[in-house]
Amino acid sequence: MPRLNYHHLFYFWRVAKGKNLTQVARELHVSQSALSMQIKQLEEQMGHPLFRREGRQLHLTEPGRIALEYAEEIFNKGEELRAFMRDHSTGHTRQLRIGAVATLSRNFLEAFIRPLLPQEDIRLSLRSAGLDELLKELAEHNLDLVLSNIPVIADRERSWRSQRIARQAVSVIGHPDKRAQYTDIGDLAHQRLLVPGPHSEIRMAFELVCQQWQIQPKIMAEVDDMAMLRLLARDTQCLAILPGVVVKDEIRKGELIELGQLTDVHENFYAVTIRRQFQLPIVTELLKRGSEDILAVS
């Protein structure tokens, strides 16, 4: 059998992932006919059809799925090598690229990176976006680590490593004049509430507690962004369900108080990485820290 043409394999890999010849051809700056011809030549070399066409849709055959698994490993290793060489090409400066989901507490993010800030040989790159976008960047080795308050489950395509690195209590937060109106969770039935969005772990745990206490909460607003939730807690007369650390500055100034912690309601923080041949030592060191160590300065 002739030597494998990796150029053809790369084209197959892109089409198998994209499932659209026209779009992939445009991204690769080749004609659709040239792209189809190169895949056909790969199929001839393999001795098996890699795709079957149903209307305008391309579907992988069984040999195609096997070829895709090998191609994924080959080209992901290539991207990892490129990222490794790039990150070690700036002399003694170590580069660390961290992605943080947009809903993550900025106080927590600052606390997580705080040990790195005095180190003059480290260059940090911080990126905020949605979880799906950040995971894509992580898979392409454009990020070294993703911080999330949502757990990530490994699937057939990606062997994510999702490690819980911290957990903090969630409280009922309000203005000082609300102290007399709150003694226990049952009082929440009579208050207008600010709560995290419906996909938040905090929100799901809070709803379970409400069910246990047979409470129908009066929700004034549900907010994904902790920074916005903090502003609404400060600027309205509603009670807010959130970790006290989010409003630590307002609590210190006396603008808000922690009326009480909610039993069995927590915010979890996860560090998500992907299996790499060369894991950065600085990432390993960061992930060795305990929850108390991280939260102590947040």
From TrEMBL:
SUPFAM superfamilies: Periplasmic binding protein-like II, Winged helix' DNA-binding domain. It comes from Lacimicrobium alkaliphilum. InterPro entries: LysR_HTH_N, LysR_subst-bd, WH-like_DNA-bd_sf, WH_DNA-bd_sf. Gene3D superfamilies: 3.40.190.290, Winged helix-like DNA-binding domain superfamily/Winged helix DNA-binding domain (1.10.10.10). Belongs to the LysR transcriptional regulatory family. The lineage of its organism: Bacteria, Pseudomonadati, Pseudomonadota, Gammaproteobacteria, Alteromonadales. It comes from the Bacteria. Residues 4-61 form the HTH lysR-type domain. The keyword Nucleus does not apply. This is LysR family transcriptional regulator. Keywords: DNA-binding, Transcription, Transcription regulation. One of its GO terms (molecular function) is DNA-binding transcription factor activity.
